[in-house]
Amino acid sequence: MNFSPAVRWLLGLAVFATTSMASTASVIWMTITPGARPNGMGEAFVALSDDATASFWNPAGLAFVEKEGNEITLQHSPWLRQLADDLYFEYLGYARYLEGWGGVGGNVTFMSMGEQQETVEGNPDPIGTFYSYGFAVTGAFGTEVAPGVAVGLGAKFIYDHLYYEDSGKGSSFAVDLGTVYRIPMDEIGLEGLGQAAIGASLQNLGPNMSYGGESEGNPLPRTVRLGIAYVPFDTRMTQLRFAADYSKLLTYVEDGLGEEIKENKWGLGAEYWYYDLLGLRLGYSHDTEGASTIHGLTFGAGVHYSAFQFDMAFIPVESSLQGSGKFNQKYSLTVAF
Fold first, then answer.
1. Could you point out which of 13, 18, 66, 132 has its C-alpha 20 to 30 Å from the C-alpha of 189?
2. How many CB atoms within 10 Å of residue 131?
3. Residue 253: its pLDDT value, please?
4. How far is Cα 103 from Cα 119, in angstroms, rounded to an integer?
5. pLDDT in tens, 47-74
6. Helix (H), strand (E) counts: the chain
7. Rounded to an integer, what is the distance from CA 218 to the centroid of its chain?
8. CA atoms of 236 and 38, how far apart (whole Å)
9. 45-77 in b/e burial notation, b at 16+ Cβ within 10 A?
10. CA dist 78 → 89, 103, 301, 323 (Å)
């Protein structure tokens, strides 16, 4: 059985059935970061996490979402169109603040790995086609346990459908943990210098994916994220935010300390809003977790009117794929009601 170039690229990252690479995780598509807003900021959002993408980035951030009403974010991303036109990543997120309790939220993520041609060894002619995809459903809660200190918990179900036989179908469940600390600038002698926060999350803590009843060698992409954020001013006329994140895959952490330090992902970025109408974002992302380094500028913009906000972002792809386009694109629509 042979696969198209698109799915071969994905399977080079992920684990297919019971065959695994000792240095990678399964369902690696779960590390794709949602939301055009945080992606435009260098994929740095752990310490902010104040919108309907918080259930992914840091469930503790749900404690600080808007105090009134609901928020829904829908994101579409045509993923790696350099390889195929039926690869795409979808995200639907929700957040709501509950007075006296905190914030609740959740998300549904869907990864289309496209239609594949199936062949048998020794015969290049296709004998049929099949469709590969994966999805995850998450529910999350965040609450403030002390002034400026919030904790959060998320629980998720994961399904991976790489092939129509049982050996290509996998499922698991996992939890996410998070915390955010909004630093009391006035109380530490920094009055008038804006707002600052630090955040951390542990993602995808759960049993290995089970493909056809076999889970050995199919670990989830368990990840630790650390972040800081600084808001020098937030007025009716202008707003400015800075953020920086560091993340590390915890799967098969077995190399020496020096090598493990090299294998990570970090990003930093800024967001500027004018009259809460037009937002501009710029950042930088650097990822050495995979077989090759992915790094470069990220940028994006947002338009807000009434209850609607539209955002777009562009993030770099692997250098070997840049001949047909240097960026993955992400588009988000947020509705408050």
1. 66
2. 14
3. 61
4. 49
5. 999 999 999 999 999 999 987 789 999 9
6. 4, 15
7. 20
8. 22
9. bbbbbbbbbbbbbbbbbbbbbeeeebbbbebeb
10. 7, 30, 18, 17
Kindly state the DSSP code that residue 254 receives in the 8-state scheme: -
The structure's pTM equals 0.85
Instruction: Give the Cα separation of 295 and 327 in Å (integer).
Output: 11
Where exactly are the structural domains of the chain? 5-336
Task: Find the mean pLDDT for residues 247-261.
Answer: 69
Cα–Cα distance measured from residue 325 to residue 137, given in angstroms and rounded to the nearest whole number: 31
Evaluated on CA atoms 35, 40, 41, 44, the torsion sign reads: positive
d(CA 271, CA 278): 10
pLDDT digits (tens, 9 = 90+) for 208-222: 999 988 878 889 999
CA dist., res. 168 & res. 160, Å (int): 8
C-beta atoms surrounding 189 within 10 Å: 7
257 SS3 class: helix
Which of 282, 280, 270 has the alpha carbon at shortest distance from 242?
Answer: 270
Q: Cβ of 9: how many Cβ atoms within 10 Å? A: 19
For the domain bounded by 5-336, which CATH number is listed?
2.40.160.60
Q: Give the separation between CA 169 and CA 290, rounded to whole angstroms.
A: 24
Closest CA to 78 of 335, 337, 277, 327: 327
Residue with tokens 């692997």: 318
Given a contact cutoff of 8 angstroms between Cβ atoms, the answer to whether 245 and 266 are in contact is yes
Sign of CA dihedral 90, 217, 245, 190: positive
Task: List the Cα angle 106/91/81 in 5-degree steps.
Answer: 160
* Helix (H) or strand (E) segment spanning residue 322: none
